[in-house]
Amino acid sequence: MKEININDIEVLWDKDSINKQVKRVAKEINEKFISEKSVNLIPIMTGGLMFVSNLIAELEILRSGCYHMFPLIAKTYGNSTESQGTTIYGYDFLAENIDIDSPSVIVDDLMDSGETLYNLTEKLEITSNKEVYSAVLLDKLGKRHMQIEPDFNCFILDDKRWVVGYGMDYMGLYRGLDYVGTINIDL
């Protein structure tokens, strides 16, 4: 794995651009589920942490008391740039506590290969009586190999560049940046 530093990161979207798009997605989600009494939000940790924390804040401004959160941990890449297969932690707790009569929105930092969201959507469709949707900060098309598309997204990137920041990492680093950038590494 190539060592990088902060100067190697090319900014794609700054904090203000991200905040504007998160507000837009929150409005779209709220409009989609305006007739629902409650909605399950299922953030995927750790990548989805920054996105879901800002998204839930915007959703609460639009309609307080409607959104329930059931976080999961998913491991797909680990400290690699290649998928290691998806492992989902915490699903038993979610299955026992989720409101099965409310729609669910899986919230993640990005949809890349589509593997994590595809696997989790399949599991949730068995558990829940209502539809399952997905919201991602970044719909990254370059490595998609699963037949799934996000229902809501803030940004689209149609290449294979590695992205960091706002929850996305490289070897566990740079998740806490308040912007999204790319790094040049050989994938």
Map the helices and strands.
Layout: E1 10-13, H1 15-32, E2 39-45, H2 49-62, E3 67-69, E4 72-75, E5 87-89, H3 91-97, E6 104-111, H4 115-127, E7 132-140, E8 152-157, E9 162-164, E10 180-183
Parallel strand pairs: 2-3, 2-4, 2-6, 6-7, 7-8
Antiparallel strand pairs: 1-10, 4-5, 9-10
Helix pairs in contact: 1-2
Summarize the structure in words.
- The mean pLDDT is 90.
- Helix 1 (15-32) crosses helix 2.
- The protein has helices at 15-32, 49-62, 91-97, 115-127; strands at 10-13, 39-45, 67-69, 72-75, 87-89, 104-111, 132-140, 152-157, 162-164, 180-183.
- The protein is built from 4 helices and 10 strands; from the N terminus they run E-H-E-H-E-E-E-H-E-H-E-E-E-E.
- Strands 2, 3, 4, 5, 6, 7 and 8 form a 7-stranded mixed β-sheet that branches. A 3-stranded antiparallel β-sheet has the order 1-10-9.
- The protein has a single domain, classed as Rossmann fold (3-Layer(aba) Sandwich).
- The protein is an alpha/beta fold and 187 residues long.
- Helices cover 28% and strands 27% of the residues.
Give the overall form: globular
Elements, N to C (H/E): EHEHEEEHEHEEEE
Cα(first) to Cα(last) distance is: 10 Å
Overall number of domains: 1
Range of helix content: 25-40%
The chain-level structural class is alpha/beta
Per DSSP, the total helix count is: 4
The CATH architecture is 3-Layer(aba) Sandwich
